[in-house]
């Protein structure tokens, strides 16, 4: 059935007033926080050539096989709305010739798109904030990246409601040995696997570790673990990461089955999870991806990053009742007739030039307009009638204290500032 044009498309939402303010708070505060760590902002297009994602995410990942919004433009090129932010950052690194400036740190924010079943905390158009630390090789950069995420969540009052889960995927040699052992084990139980996992067994068996099927997870209880396949170098790398986190008093939980949804990750992977959002437990996720730049045609370049869903963060902030206070209008200017509208606009302009938010209320009875200003939690109203116009005065009323005074217009700003301290 065709939906009326007046409705939003399924899986999208309008952000209005307080909801938009909450999104803006997350974006601006995360940008300011990441600047403390040396990150610079990068903004990439919301669509790329499809190959950017199909080559980097892996043909067997859900984001490619089921979820991408892919279309042909009028020139016949295949384009895809970005389902995540890392591949576009790496594409920009290469296409803008930035590889000679490594290491580089970038922060990004904006909408992402995945065609999946909409549910609480998961939409088809959603928003992410994220960082990428490109050219970072040593374990300290993993620790630094996790620290940045941990401190940001702490600033939002989430430390008591989240758990840092940590794992290592090891290097190529470790993953190759694990893959060999895992496939040998799973092939014995192929008929017992879920339909998705049967496909993954042929295309990308490691994705089975991330299966949501309970029967798959039971089979994995006795599967060969990646830990037993780690090379000495991989073990040493991960030990240095955990030692660094311990030194900084960042608590973590080892999660051997934690993997990432995309194929380009290696070594450290992590998630900050919560129990307050039901099935959507991941709040912020990240990891190391040393192979991605090379896959996209560049030289081998180590990198690590993380991303967080803004919608999920807003739900969590609301859950713990830690949403920012929305700033209300400071003063409403009430002209008593059309003759005072122009002078009222001039007064409002002077107020705004002093960073005092001001709005005009021009219609309705005075009492109703005062009630509207009070309901909007304004502190002041300025009454402009015929007498005030003739005498170049203004009548100010403090809606909090009830005090009312008539004074020259050129004293209005000082009186408001003094009354606001």
Can you describe this structure?
The protein is of the alpha+beta class and 421 residues long. The protein folds into three domains: 18-171 and 231-319, 2-Layer Sandwich (BirA Bifunctional Protein, domain 2); 173-226, no CATH class; 331-419, 3-Layer(aba) Sandwich (Rossmann fold), CATH 3.40.50. The chain has 15 helices and 16 strands. The protein has helices spanning 18-35, 50-57, 62-65, 86-95, 139-155, 172-187, 195-203, 214-220, 232-247, 292-295, 310-319, 341-353, 366-375, 386-391, 412-419, and strands at 40-41, 47-49, 70-72, 78-81, 104-113, 125-134, 163-168, 253-254, 266-273, 282-288, 303-309, 331-335, 358-360, 380-384, 393-398, 404-408. The longest helix has 18 residues, at 18-35.
Keywords:
421 residues, alpha+beta, eight-stranded mixed sheet, five-stranded mixed sheet, 20% strand, elongated
Summarize the structure.
Helices cover 37% and strands 20% of the residues.
Widest sheet, order of strands: 1-5-6-11-10-9-7-8
The CATH superfamily of the largest domain is: Bira Bifunctional Protein, Domain 2
Largest sheet at a glance? Answer: 8 strands, mixed
The radius of gyration over CA amounts to 28 Å
Topology:
Layout (H helix, E strand, L loop, with lengths): L17 H18 L4 E2 L5 E3 H8 L4 H4 L4 E3 L5 E4 L4 H10 L8 E10 L11 E10 L4 H17 L7 E6 L3 H16 L7 H9 L10 H7 L11 H16 L5 E2 L11 E8 L8 E7 L3 H4 L7 E7 H10 L11 E5 L5 H13 L4 E3 L5 H10 L4 E5 L1 H6 L1 E6 L5 E5 L3 H8 L2
Parallel strand pairs: 1-5, 7-8, 12-13, 12-14
Antiparallel strand pairs: 2-4, 3-4, 5-6, 6-11, 7-9, 9-10, 10-11, 14-15, 15-16
């Amino acid at each position: 059935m065709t939906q009326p044009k007046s409705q939003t498309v399924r899986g999208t939402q309008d952000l209005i007033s307080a909801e938009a303010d909450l999104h803006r708070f997350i974006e601006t505060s995360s940008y300011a926080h990441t600047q403390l760590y040396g990150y610079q902002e990068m903004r990439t297009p919301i669509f790329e050539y499809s190959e950017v994602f199909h080559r980097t995410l892996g043909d067997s990942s859900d984001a490619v096989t089921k979820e991408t919004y892919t279309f042909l433009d009028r020139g016949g090129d295949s384009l895809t709305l970005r389902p995540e932010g890392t591949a576009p950052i790496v594409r920009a690194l290469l296409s803008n010739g930035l590889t000679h400036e490594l290491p580089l740190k970038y922060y990004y924010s904006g909408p992402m798109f995945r065609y999946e079943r909409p549910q609480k905390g998961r939409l088809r158009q959603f928003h992410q904030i994220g960082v990428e630390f490109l050219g970072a090789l040593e374990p300290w950069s993993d620790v630094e990246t996790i620290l940045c995420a941990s401190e940001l969540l702490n600033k939002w009052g989430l430390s008591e409601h989240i758990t840092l889960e940590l794992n290592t995927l090891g290097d190529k040699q470790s993953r190759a040995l694990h893959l060999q052992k895992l496939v040998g084990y799973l092939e014995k139980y192929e008929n017992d696997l879920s339909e998705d996992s049967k496909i993954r067994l042929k295309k990308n068996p490691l994705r089975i570790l991330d299966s949501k099927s309970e029967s798959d997870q039971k089979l994995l209880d006795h599967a060969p673990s990646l830990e037993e396949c780690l090379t000495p170098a991989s073990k040493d790398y991960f030990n240095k990461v955990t030692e660094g986190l311990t030194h900084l008093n960042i608590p973590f939980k080892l999660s051997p089955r934690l993997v990432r949804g995309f194929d380009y990750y290696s070594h450290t992977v992590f998630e900050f999870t919560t129990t307050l959002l039901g099935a959507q437990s991941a709040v912020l996720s990240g990891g190391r991806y040393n192979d991605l730049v090379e896959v996209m045609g560049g030289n081998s370049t180590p990198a690590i990053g993380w991303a967080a869903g803004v919608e999920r963060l807003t739900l969590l902030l609301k859950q713990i009742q830690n949403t920012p206070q929305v700033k209300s209008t400071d003063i409403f200017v009430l002209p008593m007739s059309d003759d005072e509208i122009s002078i009222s606009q001039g007064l409002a302009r002077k107020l705004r030039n002093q960073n005092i938010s001001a709005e005009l209320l021009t219609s309705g009875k005075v009492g109703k307009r005062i009630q509207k200003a009070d309901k909007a939690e304004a502190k002041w109203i300025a009454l402009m009638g015929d007498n005030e116009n003739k005498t170049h005065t203004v009548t100010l009323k403090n809606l909090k204290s009830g005090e009312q005074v008539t004074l020259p217009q050129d004293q209005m700003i000082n009186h408001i500032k003094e009354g606001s301290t």
